[in-house]
Amino acid sequence: MNTKLIDWPTFIGAFVLLLGVVVPLIIFPEAGVEVVNQANTFMTSNFGVLYLIMGLLVFAFLIFVAFSANGHILLGDEGEKPEFNSFSWAAMLFAAGIGSSILYWAVIEWAYYYQGPPFGIEPESKEAIQWSTAYGIFHWGPIAWAIYTLPALPIAYFYYVRKKPVLKISEACRPLLGRTVDGPVGHIIDILFMFGLMGGAGTTLALGTPMIAEGISELTGLEADMTMQTFILLLCTAIFAFSAYSGLKKGIKLLSDINLWLALFLLGFIFLFGPTRFLTETTTNSIGILMDNFFKMATWTEPFGDIGAFEETGFPEGWTIFYWAWWLVYAPFVGLFVARISRGRTIRQMVLGTMVYGTLGCVLFFGIMGNFGLYLQMTGSFDAIGYMNEYGAPAAIIAIIGQLPLAKFMVLIFTVLAIIFLATTFDSSSYILSAVVQKEVENEPLRWNRLFWAFALCLLPLALMFLGGLGTLQTASIVGGFPLIFIMFMLALSFMKASNEDIRASEGYEPKTIHINRKKILERLRKKRYQQKPPEQ
Ligand code: NM2
Prior knowledge:
The chain is mostly helical. The chain has a single domain (8-532), classed as Amino acid/polyamine transporter I, CATH 1.20.1740. The chain has 21 helices and no strands. The longest helix has 39 residues, at 29-67. The protein starts with 7 loop residues before the first helix and ends in a 5-residue tail after the last helix. It binds 3-carboxy-N,N,N-trimethylpropan-1-aminium. The site of 3-carboxy-N,N,N-trimethylpropan-1-aminium has 10 residues, from helix 4 and helix 14.
């Protein structure tokens, strides 16, 4: 076992932090639930607005970058063409950023909004239906994808412009922090990034596992209990471990490709054999609602709830704030990946590409799967909400899929899809976690190191599932995401600093202000008109 390559302070720091959270939760589950819920309320009610402001600022910043001089920078050498065509690029982007959670939330998110809408709207009213179709797309839309893209800016810039491969987030802060990243500050940044990612993956794995368990239970008749859930988590780690260990590097790539086709098949099937027109119309309509209310949704803090003027629903804390935190904890990790696949694109293409393609992909899932559930509910053919309130969300998700023609087969496809998604989450997260704790990475992180983090990743979701409750799962991301708010700002500043310096230093660079000479233009126009005149007879 090669241990010389390991950056021990980061390795131990991150693992101790993880154990420091998980062990007390398992030893004192009851007090644990209490503490976790208090942490959730404390963070979201005091600092919730910070997450919302961060979301808006990141969105505005990326639009600014895309259309500024910095947006024209090519990520590569002069004249280089994009390494991947747009379709593969978008597919890889989606595969990296999206996991089993989209299967979970696309199917069921509307039911939560319908029962607990924002803006003081009557639950289960006609108005609530409208919002329930739009909010899912919002939480998986342009702001969310902007959060994903920001860390890709400095990382891609260092990779392809300054030609310095970066695998650590601390390294991406170097232009701003200088030498200090070589000391404890750098370790702290990396540990916080790892802690966030473990929190985010914890939320993903703890949501996905019970859903897979329900799918297997539906197919085999076995009970979806904690034993089965533990077994599933270990199975997914094992699938991944096997492919990592046997050197089947292509194994995971193959799994992601299978996943892409299975997902397209599932979406196509629901769209064609489900209520096609309803799905199309409702999705189109919800895009309109989203565009009309984009900023209202992005800034809804339920401001009058605290003083009793409004009934307090906890909508922003339970949803928008939680979601921004959840995207945030994955952001540096997805950023590393987006950077890697963006060689030969301009910064503007990379930024607009993630925001547009990412959002479109999510619209497909939510528009087709979510509105299918809504359709069943509205037409009275299946009471998804009643089912959810009685048996829980994971069971309701499987039951909704079970309403399709060829029910068993579709549940099988859905479950396999979720399992592969989960295995690829283990693969990619453990890759990054192990790479961050190494001083150097040649081709691949050390095998034992990777397996270590893959198994470490099981700990938090096991504890969270054991405690139970959606709020508990959300807390992992919300708490883990908090320090990342500040790291995001550092990443943005680092990028601006480095790229502005280089732009200024570039030979022949001239500021892009164009001075309009009105006189000349008028003259030219006059000449043109004269030329166009038909020759006089
Ligand atoms: N996000 C996209 O399981 C997953 O889909 C991982 C979750 C941040 C909500 C990402």
